[in-house]
Design a protein that fits this description.
Elements (H helix, E strand, L loop, with lengths): L7 E5 L10 H4 L2 E6 L2 H10 L7 E3 L11 E7 L8 H11 L1 E12 L11 H6 L6 E6 L6 E9 L3
Length: about 150
C-alpha cells in the first residue's frame, strides 16, 4: 500500500518480506498485513527497518493506521463466497480517496493461465479501471494478471 502523507507501500498478505528489498520498496516505506504471525515475524526479521509497519491481522477486521493510495491483494486469501465483501471492505476501509486497489492473479503449476479476474469483479458490480497481463515467454500463456479499481475521490 502506498499512502500519504508519507510515501508508503504495503501489501495485504505481506508473506515473508522477500519482495520488500526491491528498488521500488527502497524508495517507499512498506506496510504489510498478514494473517500468519509466523510469516509476519519472518518479514520483520528480513526487513527490520520496516518491522513496525508489518501487522498481523485479518483484513475483514483490521483497522489500518492510515488509508493507502495503493493496496495489492489476491483472491486466494479469501473463501470464494466472501470475495465480493472482501473487495468492498478494502475499498471502503483501506484505500485513500482517489487511490487504487490492485487485484492480482498468478498462474499455478497446474493451470494453463492466470485466472481471469476482471469479469468476476465486474459481475459483482465493481468498475474495473484497467488490466495488465504478463505472458510466460518460455511456455506461453498468461502467467500474471493485474486488475485495478479506482476508489472514489
Amino acid at each position: 500500500m502506498i499512502g500519504r502523507p508519507l510515501p508508503t507501500q504495503s501489501s495485504k498478505a505481506c508473506s515473508s518480506g522477500g519482495g520488500g528489498k526491491s528498488d521500488h520498496a527502497r524508495q517507499h516505506r512498506p506496510t504489510g498485513l498478514d494473517v500468519s504471525p509466523r510469516l509476519a515475524a519472518l518479514a520483520r526479521t528480513r526487513l527490520p527497518e520496516w518491522g513496525g509497519r508489518i501487522f498481523v491481522g485479518n483484513a475483514f477486521g483490521w483497522e489500518p493506521p492510515q488509508r493507502f493510495d495503493f493496496v495489492r491483494t489476491e483472491f486466494v486469501y479469501v473463501p470464494a463466497s466472501r470475495q465480493p465483501e472482501y473487495i468492498a471492505r478494502l475499498l471502503a476501509h483501506m484505500i485513500a480517496p482517489g487511490g487504487r486497489l490492485l487485484v492480482c492473479s498468478y498462474r499455478s503449476q497446474r493451470e494453463g493461465a492466470a485466472q481471469p479476474i476482471r469479469e468476476r469483479l465486474q459481475d459483482w458490480g465493481f468498475a474495473v479501471s484497467g488490466e495488465a497481463t504478463g505472458v510466460d515467454t518460455t511456455s506461453g500463456g498468461v502467467a500474471t494478471r493485474v486488475v485495478w479499481i479506482e476508489a472514489a475521490s
